[in-house]
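ASSEMBLY PREDICTION REQUEST
Request ID: AP-0331
Submitted by: J.K., bench scientist
Number of chains: three
Total residues: 853
Priority: normal
Notes: Please return the full assembly, not individual chains.
Input sequences:
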Amino acid sequence: MIDAPTPESADAASAASTPVLTVDGLTIGIGSRNNVKSIVKGISLALTPGRVQGLAGESGSGKTVTSLAMLGLLPSNAVVGGSIRLTDPEGGDTELVGMSHRQLNEIRGRRIAMIFQDPSSSLHPQLTVGVQLTDHVTRHLKLSKKQAREHAIGLLDRVRVPNPAEALGRYPHQFSGGQRQRIAIAIALACDPVVLLADEPTTALDVTVQAGILHLLRDLADERQLAVLLVTHDLGVMSAIADDIAVMRHGEIVESNVRHNIFANPQHAYTRELLSSLPGAEGFQEVSE
Amino acid sequence: MSELLEVSDLVIEYHGATVVRAVDEVSLTIAPGEVLALVGESGCGKSSLARAVVGMEKPRSGAVTYRDAEVPLLGVRRRKAQFTSIQMVFQDPNSSLNPRIRVGQQISEGIRAAVERGAEGSQPEEWLERVGLPTTMVSRYAHELSGGQRQRVAIARALAARPDLLVADEPISALDASSQASVADMMRKLALDAGAGLLFISHDLAIVRLIADRTVVMYRGKIVESGVSDLIWNDPVHPYTRALISAIPEPDGKGILPAAPAAEAPEEWRLTMPEALNRV
Amino acid sequence: MRKRWLKIPAAWITPLGVIGAVIAVAWVGIAFTARLWVPFDPLAQDLPRLQAPGIDTLMGTDALGRDIFSRLMTGAGVTIPLALMLVVMSLLVGTLIGAIAGYFGKWVDELLMRLTDLVMAFPTVILAMVVAAALGPSLFNAVIAAFVVSWPQYARMTRSIVLGLRTQNYVMAGRLMGFSPFKTLRVDIAPNVVGPILVLASLDVGTAILLLSGLSFLGLGAQPPTPEWGSMISAAIQNFDSWWIGLFPGLAILTVVMAFNFVGDSLRDIFDPTSQVSRAGARS
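STATUS: Completed
Returned structure:
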């Protein structure tokens, strides 16, 4: 699929710098007609191939709602404004805000995939891993059964699930939490998406397992030129794999910069507060609630 | 004996389709005014151990001794006053408070327990102040508070009973990252002010390092390494402890991926290394 | 919490709930005052027999020349208070048994739950019939029969709620502080059982009325000449072409049962834990 970067692929590199998903002035309110509560207040973001965009913030800052909006998975009483534009290298521009459910279904899972905090709730408990992996593929990529199976084995092997051929016949509960998250990632990758949304992908995992998943996400972003949105409250995770970081608070992005600058030279007071609340040798202070 | 709490050769098993040994011959002690951290990943048995310490879990064998008396199982009967000086803070702040009773009244129940034991009385407002909440919260209900505030109230209620042993089972993991470290630090200070021993259970080594005098690392029901916190953090001996510490991503903005173990749960993590135990 | 009960948020007021509440309150009002204002003595047999509804007799008269409107209104005073009493009795006994079973567990739970299983294994009406037949037909015995079959559902529900609550952290916290079992039940458990049980009770009023009139219909409850709805319908069977004799008591039962069901349904929405979650979730 995607080869290692060579001198010839210079135009690929320039393509990589143009965003595939552009969020512009996104507003999200939730509530009934005359009582809409504003959750996201006009944020802008751009996801570029091969880069991991971090979205940091505390619970209630609107970061999860933002990622759900990109998949059109908001509750029916949500009011969305602004623009989310998918610039698919294969198929031109698409505006996701205001799109019908049917059209979104075409994009969801196929061009934009998502993984969640709790892999056991995103995997179907009653279906084998094989069925869950090939179901997507046969539907969207129109592969034969045999091709789909080989494709699935390849994916499981890529996410480093041991004995992939055998794993296809097993059920999610027969795997550890870390393996389940790897399987969820394999399913997300099944249709070769251009954007991967990862909402707290390692929060439910043990720290030693988390390290492995972080390696995997970083590698996938690099080798498949995936544009990754990483939503997390964990600044350690952020520091490990995010290239760019946006800090959200009360539905607004208060600061957005490349990783190094966020940590070394935070501009906004809230970013500084977040950083200083981390357990460090110098002691820590409290963030006002 | 100077120890406040002594756990000796504790074994806890769960009988389902198969017998799961959650805690496998664990021994530890806590002295008054000492903060002992119990760390390990999910399923290592640390929560079972914590529950056994307060009597919420029945040991298969072994003993939990508090002030030279065996801690009785928390059955249907009323707990004897001599054991109400063992208090617990739970992981989930949402279910820690009674939704239908005002915050102040719930703290008062803690105060009552202290008074019944012959300890000094106090006012709910004092405890709210101590955990950094406004005193006006006495008249609030749990659902009117944020998760962090609820956990502070739960801590205030436990402290109001004037415990001399406080068991905290993952008290900070449900909180926002920005308040985790400060709540942990507050718990240490308040427990020490009261001269109590604190058993602090967590999966977060980075925070434990800051508040615990001694640390116990558990893996699959067994203690693999224990001793002075700084020693364990700076110079881990056991392969599991090493993997655990090196897997923590450093929030330094350098983009360095933490070391991932080569395999899931390698055999060497299960080694018993006498030199890794009781390090001083 | 108490404050919120007094001030009912607009979202809780549903049209059906309001209609139900109005009808239910009207019927209860009629039940307690009917004897004071009905136009005829409900027992007097001095009107023309089988007279169709008209100006004098709004709902006509029955085969014995009694005014059906007067009998219907006073009949409310027979059935509704008994149904309410029945529900309160079942609620108290069932909740207590369920709470004890759920809280103490082990053999206590086993014993009490097998007892409720025993009762629940029989079809409600059949068992009530057996009890009523054994005790002899009378309205009071019908209430006892209905009580025997209706407490187990309260016991079941209370037990399952208490089982869930028993392991809640705040219950544990209370016990670590030396709460007695009674105090735990009173402070930590009872207040959280009240809501769902009230919903069940309000839905159950309708069922209780149906059950009592059903028993009377079968001749196992109210005895002549008591103006009871079920027995009035039963009497109508002998005069099939006089439609008014059975229709009006039937409508009375229909409206009162539906009214209490509407009230119960809207109470359920109010106490529904998921609606509470969504309200709490909107805050955080």
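REVIEWER COMMENTS: Residues 229 and 249 of chain C are 5 Å apart (CA to CA).
SIGN-OFF: pending second reviewer
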